[in-house]
């Protein structure tokens, strides 16, 4: 990707502020065999370039004073609340010196995996970029990761993928970090084939097993109720059986 920069003569806070007011962005180029050089860029062109992934992760062709140089984007500073780039840094690239870069990971074919299609799972991206070390000629724009083989309960580690030729990962104490993990939607387990039929058959069996207990309760309740009814009925019927008192003459 190519962009145009211009030499910047003045430096300092006041000069940079005046430069921004005219639609320019101050910057600097350093590294390589040359001395650090102050530059300025057209702000609108830079703003649109920064929206492209390639501008952040690939070697750029910078045209400065009629000459081209290979550079890498190293730092960008933005205004706290305005849509404005306040400063930008580039590093010159030496073809024989290894680079240390962060390269984006592009995950593909997750929707074709067994985990997503048949097991109601979601593929969770643990890492979105990878630190690598390589020569400028071997620097990839991105690293593609195929997720079509993911299944429920699986995790994809760094050692499980094939890195481009000449690329070495920089893991910082984590030799085999997790890139992707498979998780269940809502934390629910997926029923195995035939499990629903077995569960349906178990419901009537459970109901039959409980039936005798209910009958016993009915018998006890019924007998007890009948006994009470007989006792109460006899007690109330006794007064009615008394003979009427004889009348006095």
Fold and architecture overview:
The chain has 249 residues and is an alpha+beta fold. Helices cover 29% and strands 33% of the residues. It is built from 5 helices and 13 strands. The chain has helices at residues 13-21, 43-49, 53-57, 114-117, 195-240; strands at 2-7, 24-30, 37-42, 60-64, 67-78, 85-92, 99-108, 121-125, 129-134, 143-146, 155-157, 168-169, 178-184. The protein has a 6-stranded mixed barrel. A 4-stranded mixed beta sheet has the order 10-7-9-12, with no helix packed on it. Residues 188-199 and 211-241 have low confidence and may be disordered.
- Major beta sheet, specifics? 6 strands, mixed, barrel
Helix content: 25-40%
Shape: elongated
Mean pLDDT, as a whole number?
Answer: 80
Number of strands: 13
Structural class: alpha+beta
Distance between the termini: 139 Å
> What is the string of SSEs from the N terminus onward?
EHEEHHEEEEHEEEEEEH
- In angstroms, what is the radius of gyration? 41 Å
In what range is the share of β-strand residues? Answer: 25-35%
Order of adjacent strands in the largest pleated sheet: 1-3-2-6-5-4
Low-confidence stretches: 188-199, 211-241
């Amino acid at each position: 990707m190519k962009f145009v920069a211009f030499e910047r003569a003045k430096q300092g806070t006041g000069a940079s502020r005046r430069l921004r007011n005219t639609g320019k962005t101050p910057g600097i180029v350093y590294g390589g065999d040359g001395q650090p050089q102050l530059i300025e860029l057209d702000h609108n062109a830079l703003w649109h370039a920064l929206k492209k992934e390639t501008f952040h992760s690939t070697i750029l062709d910078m045209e400065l004073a009629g000459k081209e140089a290979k550079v890498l984007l190293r730092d960008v500073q933005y205004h706290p609340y305005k849509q404005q780039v306040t400063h930008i840094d580039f590093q010159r690239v030496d073809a024989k010196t290894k680079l240390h870069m962060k390269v984006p990971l592009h995950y593909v074919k997750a929707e074709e995996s067994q985990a997503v299609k048949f097991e109601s799972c979601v593929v969770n991206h643990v890492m979105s970029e990878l630190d690598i070390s390589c020569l400028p000629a071997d620097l990839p724009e991105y690293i593609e990761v195929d997720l079509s083989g993911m299944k429920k309960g699986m995790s994809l580690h760094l050692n499980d993928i094939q890195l481009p030729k000449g690329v070495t990962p920089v893991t910082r104490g984590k030799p085999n970090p997790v890139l992707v993990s498979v998780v269940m939607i809502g934390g629910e387990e997926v029923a195995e084939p035939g499990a629903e039929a077995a569960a349906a058959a178990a419901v009537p069996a459970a109901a039959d097993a409980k039936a005798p207990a209910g009958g016993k309760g009915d018998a006890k309740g019924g007998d007890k109720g009948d006994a009470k009814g007989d006792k109460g009925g006899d007690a109330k019927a006794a007064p009615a059986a008394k003979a009427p008192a004889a009348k006095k003459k």
